[in-house]
Amino acid sequence: MAEEVLESEKKELAKQYKQLLKISYRTLSAADKKLIRSAFDVAVDAHKDQRRKSGEAYVFHPIAVAKIVASEIGLDATSIAAALLHDVVEDTDYTLADLEQLFGETVAKIVDGLTKISQMPYDGDVSLQAENFRKMLLTLNEDIRVIIIKIADRLHNMQTMDSMPSHKQVKIASETLYIYAPLAHRIGLYNIKTQLEDLGLKYTEPEVYNDILSKIKESKEEQDAYIESFTQVIKDSLDAENLEYEIKGRPKSIFSIRRKMIAQNVSFDEVYDKFAVRIIYKSNNIEDEKFIAWKVYSIVTDHFRPNPTRLRDWISSPKSTGYEALHITVMGPKGRWVEVQIRSERMNEIAEKGYAAHFKYKTNEKDDGLEGWLNKLQETLENSEISAIDFVEEFKLNLYAKEIFVFSPKGDLYSLPKGATALDFAFHIHTEVGLNTRGTKVNGKLTPLSHVLKSGDQVEIITSEKAKPSANWLDYATTGKARSKIKSSLKEEQKQIASEGKEILARKLKSLKITLDERTVNQLVQFFKLKTSLDLFYRVGAGIIDNTQLKAFAASRSNALVSFFKNKIRKPDKPADVDKDEISVKYDQLVFGKDEQHLDYVLANCCNPIPGDDVFGFVTVNDGIKVHKQNCPNALQLQSNYSYRIMPAKWIDSTQREFKAQLKISGIDAVGLVNEVTKVVSNNLHIDMKKVYFDSDDGIFNGEIIVVVKNKSILDNLVQNLKKINGIDKVTRV
């Protein structure tokens, strides 16, 4: 029996090999065929004793992956060989050194990258998926092909998951939807993305999937007839222009119909653009290609009325994945909206094959679509500040983000994710530009850093050597790159203040006859209820812990008898993470709105936010302000239906925060008095003047200044200095 099985398998293998060469997208040279042949033989030999869960010989899996890589993605012979060998090192006796000797360094490197992804150790404290994903992307800098073959491998696993236990199916399917589908989308493999999404849905929500599938099958005939009637109208006009073209109707994927049903809260029948019509035309040279696209566009819109808000022109400015096409939504027969996609044959191949088709048509012009994307990714990856989960979230945001296109003052075009602000643009140009941003102009007008950009804006960044990021910048920036750079810059600045603080502390303690040693530091950290020694130094450096507080510490310490008993009762002398190299945030207050006001609030029961969570305030009718987590199940509904009642909110460390103070000044009016007052304020370091108002009435002068200061001692000092000015009678804090 076994002999017969093997006979039939041998025949099948020979057939598969021929097929692999035949369906390859690239033209294979003799050397290519030789490489693929030897990789094929090694794979068959290496996996000869292995079977899959379904019972078939294991080697059919790498062959299937190689076929996807060869035909659907259209990669080169090196990639096909690597795909055939992708499980050899992990599952069999072959080593990397063997592969390098047999197939050269590149193939070995790619296989090594693929092996690394599948052998990732589990890091206990972070989500495994996220950490794996990050490591997987780290292999990108070695070779983009690693990821592409991994996507093909995942596609074949998804296609053949039937014989697996259901808990595994769900795990693999949800990981696919979370990671691999967005990745395929970002690399421009739209066909594979669609298949991955549909298969992901099939295992995560089988009832929904089967329901939509059967409905699509039911409406197929009617749909074909509709597309037939739609195309009939256009055909004569296209023929009259002597165009060579084909028109295809394409039903929307199950996953995207499902997404629409959820997003718009409608039933299957109410999803209006369940299918698209694709017009693919022949164009013999690149020069005519654009011209023909617009010609086809004008013919379609002659017959059907277009929806002006739904025109997408990705021919003039292609997506960063290289995708080019014209999309229009028109009102077709029977009053139905139909999406029409107009592409040349070249554009169609790029849309289906993504990365690979670029090379086939590549001219000498610089093409940084994918290269640029990889470089951006590389930056995000090399930034170790960001935790794996944040990384995946940021990356996902960047994946599905719609793009906007903005111009620099010189007219260079940049693409940014939708929702990006003027500050994001500054960091997008260059980190140094971002960190030294003083202001921004959009379309020639000065705008706040938080100004959200729209496609077509011309943005100018005003920089200054002295400008540096402040904590508020995190509220203004949305892109991963900008946020991570701001965070690390703020940390640097805090560390600098801390190192100055350490010297100040040593001086101040010396005058109190206390030496600054490890024991004193531990006692100080405990006395001020802090977490780390860096917290302590930072707070001294920023003037938050001042002389009076240090004197109080000295007094508590000198009372030896009390401290002896305290020490007996007290926990061990050294707090656990006192030596940690970080400045921790004490989340002790919740503030609302741009002005960071302190208001009364209650925490919502539906999501029970705790200090430090990302939150927002919701103004209720009876209970005042309720605070919800940003990812609260009710958040989406509240934010979309009652957006006018939403208040931005965040947790802050009040000891580190600058606070606003309002000073009222009165006295006898004299020439140059206002000048004197403003001079005193601006000469005082660490003070930021927000509002100045002076009024003089018959020789009596009244004024009001609002200043932002780090702490009370700076404010007291300012009040004293203002009182010294000749002519000023009273300075009171409101």
What report would you give on this structure?
β14 (615-619) and β15 (625-629) form a beta hairpin. Mean pLDDT is 80; it is low at 121-126 and 363-367. The protein is 51% helix and 16% strand. By secondary structure, it is α+β, with helices and mostly antiparallel strands. The strands form five sheets. Strands 1, 2, 3, 4, 5 and 6 form a six-stranded mixed β-sheet that branches. A five-stranded mixed β-sheet has the order 12-16-14-15-13. It has a four-stranded antiparallel β-sheet with strand order 18-19-17-20, with helices on one face. The protein has five domains: 12-204, Hypothetical protein af1432; 220-353, Beta Polymerase, domain 2 (2-Layer Sandwich); 489-561, no CATH class; 589-652, no CATH class; 659-733, 2-Layer Sandwich (Alpha-Beta Plaits), CATH 3.30.70. In eubacteria ppGpp (guanosine 3'-diphosphate 5'-diphosphate) is a mediator of the stringent response that coordinates a variety of cellular activities in response to changes in nutritional abundance.
